[in-house]
């Protein structure tokens, strides 16, 4: 009997939809259909591809409210965050359409006795395995760049946002994308391995945990297929001695609570020098305590539910284990007695190595505030992590902060005196256990290409 996927509203615990998983034969046929669509798509000019990508952005704008409401129902995002997510995806489409043709244009180079040409050819079908925290953006981030390159795109979305994946597929086809070029696979993990093994699949990209990343990377490596991984993190935001404390407090609240605390580049560890520690903890605690939790469709609410009950329960266990090992919750720290996958804004202090709050990724609205002796100690603690995706530095000395970011902060993306999620014109990705490869900023368009060398001999020179 074929399995099923059931989506549930995490705010109300009501069932939304039920979907039937594909059989192995259906999944294999879907991969073949994507490949067949790719064979035609690869022959289109980059300008023609760009126009369809621009049309996808326009259709995203036209469908913004319907898509935003669906995402909020499926994963509990605040409705304002869902709308902002669609806006970001529109920007990605427009940036890619504007810059894709030039980024992928042939490059000519002088070679002995002739001219060398570097041609960026599409590889084929690229398989993406994506999480639930940004049901539109996580897909658009890899899919749009690969469509611009000329590749076909497969998606295995997280089960709890299956509807969002199908909504995006239909939206792209309304915008003029050839049918099957972007294909959603309703499959389980065992079937996912079969997709990676399929000879028609030429590359694999995953956004998820470092545990999932190891599994998928190993499977792709067995098949000698390139992979791009964007994995977890416990991003450090450093408050130096000369920081503007009011700015740091306000920004670090946003950095922790954005998207209900379920973002890979949320601020998670807040490392504050001894000079500022007491003032920071006092201000930060007050603001976190004041956050109103409730219905994510209510514009006045600052914190919605987590995406699933099991995710909330895991977070609660991490907090409890950290407290058992010496941390203290000065705000929150207890699961509320109410329907829905809710967990309150929480601030942990006395956070030390050996606690989940220090060592691991807490994927929810829990902040770990860590005391450092001085600026140098703060940077040491920031780098004392197996992860390295994002991070931030607060300092009034911008030149010094930039130097620290450039030369000492061992992470992929750093914001000075602010907080950023992602920008279409800047590379996105990390180091260490946070993965490898880059998306955005033009980099994603060249992750899955065949950079062909064409040697053109000058016949007149012979």
UniProtKB/TrEMBL annotation:
<dbReference type="GO" id="GO:0004777">
    <property type="term" value="F:succinate-semialdehyde dehydrogenase (NAD+) activity"/>
</dbReference>
<protein>
    <recommendedName>
        <fullName>Aldehyde dehydrogenase domain-containing protein</fullName>
    </recommendedName>
</protein>
<keyword id="KW-0521">NADP</keyword>
<dbReference type="InterPro" id="IPR016162">
    <property type="entry name" value="Ald_DH_N"/>
</dbReference>
<keyword id="KW-0560">Oxidoreductase</keyword>
<dbReference type="GO" id="GO:0004030">
    <property type="term" value="F:aldehyde dehydrogenase [NAD(P)+] activity"/>
</dbReference>
<feature type="domain" description="Aldehyde dehydrogenase">
    <location>
        <begin position="4"/>
        <end position="454"/>
    </location>
</feature>
<dbReference type="InterPro" id="IPR047110">
    <property type="entry name" value="GABD/Sad-like"/>
</dbReference>
<dbReference type="InterPro" id="IPR015590">
    <property type="entry name" value="Aldehyde_DH_dom"/>
</dbReference>
<dbReference type="InterPro" id="IPR016161">
    <property type="entry name" value="Ald_DH/histidinol_DH"/>
</dbReference>
<comment type="similarity">
    <text>Belongs to the aldehyde dehydrogenase family.</text>
</comment>
<dbReference type="InterPro" id="IPR044148">
    <property type="entry name" value="ALDH_GabD1-like"/>
</dbReference>
<dbReference type="InterPro" id="IPR016163">
    <property type="entry name" value="Ald_DH_C"/>
</dbReference>
<dbReference type="Pfam" id="PF00171">
    <property type="entry name" value="Aldedh"/>
</dbReference>
